[in-house]
Design a protein that fits this description.
Elements: E1 5-8, E2 13-17, E3 26-27, E4 33-36, E5 51-53, E6 59-60, E7 65-68, E8 77-79, E9 84-86, E10 90-95, H1 102-118, H2 130-134, E11 137-140, H3 143-184, E12 191-194, E13 199-204, E14 217-220, E15 225-226, E16 229-230, E17 236-238, H4 240-248, E18 258-261, E19 270-272, E20 280-281, E21 285-290, H5 296-304, H6 306-311, E22 316-317, E23 323-324, H7 326-329, E24 333-336, H8 339-379
Parallel strand pairs: 4-9, 14-20
Antiparallel strand pairs: 1-11, 2-10, 3-5, 4-5, 6-9, 7-8, 7-10, 12-24, 13-21, 14-17, 15-16, 18-19, 18-21, 22-23
Length: about 375
Amino acid sequence: MNEWREGTLAEIAEIIMGQSPEGEFCNTSGVGIPLLNGPTEFGIKYPVPVQFTVNPRKFSKPNDILFCVRGSTTGRMNWADQIYALGRGLAAIRHKNGQEYKYFVRGIIDFNLPLLLSSATGSTFPNVSRNQIEELGVSIPPLPEQKAIAAVLSSLDDKIDLLHRQNKTLEAMAETLFKQWFVVEAREDWEEVTLEDITTRITDGAHLSPSTVENGFPMASVKDMHQWGINIESCRKISESDFNELVRNDCRPLKNDIIIAKDGSYLKHVFVAENDLDVVILSSIAILRPNEKYHPLLLATFLKMSSTREDLENIVTGAVIPRIVLKDFRKFTIILPPKDVQEKALNIIEPIYLKCWRNVAQIQTLETIRDNLLPKLMSGEVRVT
């Protein structure tokens, strides 16, 4: 690797560890600086803050990498799109030579993340310290090559981000159409039913978690969900016998099932399974299996709506980790549109979702290209100038 040298992350990047403000200085009413505490506020690329503080201690700047340093989500990352106050669950990382190198820093962290995570302390509640991040061993190319690598990774990320933004716009269109047909233009003679009436099954996943194995079959919790599916790569692996047992217990999502985030940020993720999924789920995720009365895409659109989430607040329990109570969820009421109205709506809404799924397939292809290219770029096997 001509002109490359071995060094540490601290030689090229600045690391700012978060420090939580006292609870009395925090609020959810938008007063002060937006506060981030961990990955529960993370989005696909940028966070969505829910807390604010008038007594911030540590800050991120726009274009910083937001890096989780505590708990089971250690190593997860987002980008800062504005100034944030940082709680102790996060660190901000930025290149010392400016934001045009930010994708190089992100790439070098991604490439060396397994090494960093292996040094995390605490088996039940792992965490990484400032020193562990700063002393992470990395291969450092000259600045011009760092910039060139950043440009390659940025180009891929921009394409992925564009597809995500297209899907967000398409989802908003589908929701607007749903509201128009089934809320604004709803007829008084339409039947009011419960979710139990329009499904054959409403259940959550396994309540007992099998042991983890190094090479096995994926088991997902709510942290592995995204808006259009489950990230198999982040799932814990379990043995084939444990996997098959959970399949027999109906913990595997099937085609046209609606998968929802049940615990934590409930209903943050809602999607329809395009096909049977090769994964089993834990109890933080729930499955709704619609019957013939309500089309899965329309029911999923209803569950995605912010007004639905607000209406569900009365059947959510838990102050620290809110969760939907399934016995109450089954009794949750919904207006049932006639089948002919559903079919007319589907003629317009279904193509929107089909476009979203095509975008998701493109995103997965681009992510595979990025993941295959990353080690070659970061090791110097592939050189760019």
